[in-house]
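Appendix B, Record 12. Input sequence as logged:
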Amino acid sequence: MANKNKNINEGKKIDLEIIEKEMDGKKEVEGRITINYTGRFDSISINSQIEDSSDVFTFIEMDDKKINHPYARLSVFKKEIQDPEKAIKFKAFTNHIPKNMESNVKFRVTLIQEHKEIASDVKYIKINK
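Logged structural output:
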């Protein structure tokens, strides 16, 4: 009999998890990246995009260390990752307030080796007014 609790992310080279699927504007969002790739890679890239807006997320924490990266893309070299075999935690913040009832946000994480994308994962959340 198959194990019904089998990890649905098993087999993925990189997995992105956003803790809250919906949030109010002007709040932090927490995420976790799990690298299941055993081959070589140079870096990971975390991208955020708020649809129909020029607003961005500021990355404010990575692996419990405070940072201030006020851009939509955060690149992290492999040597900066504390333990590449475990989860990388991050927090990001935006001042975005939706024009309508909600805004859609896309987070995308990629594994990079020699300027080529090896693997990626995408997750979506909503910001409510």
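The CA atoms of residues 62 and 97 lie 24 Å apart.
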